Amino acid sequence: MNTPPLYRQLANHYLDAIRSGTLKTGERLPSIRLMMEKHAVSLSTAVQVCRELEDHGVLEARPRSGNYIRQPDTAPGPKPIAHPPALESGVYVGIHEKVSSVLKASQRATVKVNFASAYCAPQLYPLKTLQDNMIKALRLDQHLFDTTSSTCGNSALRNVLARRMLTVKTNLTAERIVITHGATEAINLALRAVTRPGDTVAVESPTFYGLLQILESLNLRVLEVPASTHAGIHLPALEHLLQGPELIKALIVMPNLHNPLGSIMPDTHKARLVKLCAEHDTVLIEDDTYGDLVDTEQPLSTLKHWDRTDNVIYCASLNKTLAPGLRLGWISAGKWHDRVEMLKHTQTRGCEKLSQLAVSAFMGTPSYERYLRRLRKTLTQQREQMSGAIMRYFPEGTRVTHPQGGTLLWVELPARHSSMGLFHDALSLGIQISPGDIFSNAKRFTNFVRIGCGAPYSPRIDEALQTLGRLLKSQS
Q1: What is the pLDDT of residues 8-44, one digit of tens each?
Q2: Are 456 and 382 contacting, i.e. CB atoms less than 8 angstroms apart?
Q3: Is the pLDDT reported for residue 75 higher than 50?
Q4: The pTM is what?
């Protein structure tokens, strides 16, 4: 019989203590530091013990206070996806090669069904409206193509973006916004503004593979901090690391609809995270690419909303919500604005004006919000259909996230299955997925896959999911 991993043995030890009454509801669990000393375990193991207890519904993390025993939920439900600990630091050597090999294999293949995309299907985007706005802009300004654009971007678009931020209780001035070539350039600019080669940058684990490529290309050291599907980055682990000997120059997080987890960080966690980073002089870079796709009546707050020291750099993108081909994003860099503006001018100059005019004309009308409501409703239905099919066709023991918005599902396969093996087998049949291996520099997500739900459910998609299920069962 296989021996359970150490973190699970310790979690069972505390579960037995709770069930027997030795530890009672409302009592405080030993801190992570004390648990490390008491059981002679690593930080990674101590963090995973707490997460295992959270998954059993018996532990509650209270900001600035610690972990407390709570009454477990009585309603039955699926066990949340569990993620292994990830806390080692090191130079990111090889992640670009790993990601590139996956992307190149996909480009060479004939893909019939693409589950690797984070975009919506073309028919879900307002393409006709954007095209009409472009034609109108060309008619109104005969000199669009014979004049250069501002480094910071079109003023009308920056004004629209600043006004929209008011709905999430975030005050940004248009003058402090820089339009970029998507969120990728925005994050590149943020990192170049606040770090130097060799600095340490913390990221959530897992995280978007494109971010890992950026970090390696800038020769930055990377610290992976575990994140969960229900609350995002693990704050006690981060706090412990911030107090450690290694200076963390910046932290990059995706608090609203994390890619790939789909997690949404609670407001209490957001406020605490912003304060923690300010206290330790760690620049907080917020990636809000998916924020507009969240299924809530009221917009979610940003980390920037809780910022009192101008320590948060806000980055966002319009590619996922409007049209991938536009490649429009933006950054509000706070006290680093002047440096970001100069870096933008040095690297790529201003973004072309035509797409900015077309987007600002649409986003400045009530039609944009109506479009977003329709899109969110459609995506909710697609995620539910995809999730149901995965549970029907994939092997027993498969677990799937249930995000409150967006186009992505994070799927945990039974431990014996290989997501990279599934990637290659599926690609040979014209089906593309994103293997979990590329969302971390370590081999911690080898049995995870990211599945995109941006296309309306169809017999073709259903058949492709059945095929994935058969391939997985053949691995057993």
Answers
A1: 788 888 887 787 778 888 888 887 778 887 888 877 6
A2: yes
A3: no
A4: 0.85
Residues 6 or more apart whose Cβ sits within 8 Å of residue 41: 6, 7, 10, 35, 49
Total residue count of the chain as it appears in this document:
476
State the fold for domain 94-122+374-475: Aspartate Aminotransferase, domain 1 (3.90.1150)
CATH of 125-368, picked from 3.40.190.10, 3.40.640.10, 3.90.1300.10, 3.40.50.150, is 3.40.640.10
In order, the DSSP letters of 134-175 are HHHHHHH-TTTTSSPPPSS--HHHHHHHHHHHGGGT----GG
CA atoms of 230 and 83, how far apart (whole Å): 12
> Which range, of 69-73, 278-282, 414-418, averages the lowest pLDDT?
69-73
Q: Who wins on pLDDT, 71 or 187? A: 187
Phi-psi region of 31 (alpha: psi -120 to 50; beta: other; left: phi over 0): beta
pLDDT at 408: 98
Question: What topology is assigned to 6-77 in CATH?
Answer: Arc Repressor Mutant, subunit A (1.10.10)
